[in-house]
Amino acid sequence: MAKILTVTLNPTIDVFSEANVIQPTVKIRTTDQAHRPGGGGVNVARVINTLGGSVELLFTSGGMTGALLEDCLNRIPIKRHKVPIVESTRIAYMVHERQTGLEYRFVPEGPEISKQELDQTMKYVEQFNGDYIVVSGSLPKGAPEDTYSRMAEIANRKGERFILDGSGDGLRHTLSTSKIFLVKPSLDELENLVGESLDEDGVRKAALELVRHGFTCNVAVSMGSKGAFLASAEQELRVPARHVKVRSAVGAGDSFVGAMTYSLANGNTLEEAFMLGVAAGTAAVMTPGTELCEREDILRLYDTISAERNLEKR
Description:
By secondary structure, the chain is an alpha/beta fold. It has helices at residues 40-50, 63-73, 115-127, 147-157, 168-177, 187-194, 200-212, 252-265, 270-285, 295-313; strands spanning 4-8, 12-19, 31-38, 56-61, 79-84, 90-97, 103-106, 132-136, 161-165, 182-183, 218-222, 228-232, 236-239. It contains 10 helices and 13 strands.
C-alpha cells in the first residue's frame, strides 16, 4: 500500500456532551461527556486507520491540553510526529440538545504558531518519503497564507500526490500558486472561493473551471444533503445524498477525505475512491458526537452506491 502522511497544524481535543435543553444565563447540566483527538488531519488519519490502512500523522501540540491530546492519540495505532509549540492546543466543545435534536458547536481559533515551529513542520514534510501528503484543517494564527502551498511544492518536488482540504485564504492561495492532485471543498468553502452562492449546476461549473484552469487535477465537492460532485479532466460524477438518520455532522468532511485517500492509496480508480468517500462521509453523520465513521457502515453504504452507479452505466 502507498505511504500516507496527514498534516494537522491546528488540532483539537473534541469534547462532546448532551443536555436536555440549552438556555442563556442559566447553568446547563450536561451528561455523557466524551473527548477525542480532532482537527482535520487527525480525523483523516483516524478514518484511514479505521479502514485498515497505514498512515503517519504530523501534528502540533502544546501546553497541558497538548498532553491530553497526546494521551488521546496514544490509544490509536498511528505513527506520529509531534511538533512542540509554546501555546496550548485548543479545545472544541459540542453539545447535543435532546429536546430539539440540535447540535451546538463551539470551535476556538486555537494557538498561535511561531516561524520556528512552522519551520519544524516543514522539515517533517520534507523528510517524509511516501506517496500522499494530506493537509486538512484550518491554518493556525501566525501561519502565512502560503503555508499549504509551500507544503504542496515540497510534495511536488518529491513526486508525491498532494491532497488539500482547507478553507479561506490558505485554500485560495494554494490553488492559485501550486499544483494540487485533489482538493475537497465543502459547498460553503467553494462558495467562499468563487464569491457567490451556488446551486447544483453552479457547483458543477465552478468545480470544472478549477480543473480546466489547471488549479487542481481533481475536485471533490461535498454538499451535505445535496450529495457530492467530482470533477476531473476525464470525468464528472454526481452522487446523491443517502437518506440516513443524522446524529452529528462532526468529522463528515474529514471522513470523506480519509476514505478517498485510503482508496487511492490502495490503487483504486478515482471514481471508486470518490464513492468510498461519499460512503464514509455519510457513515460519519450516523454516529453521535465526536465519533467518526464505522468501517461496517462505510462498506455497506459503498456497496449500495456502487451498485446504483453500475445500474446507471447500463
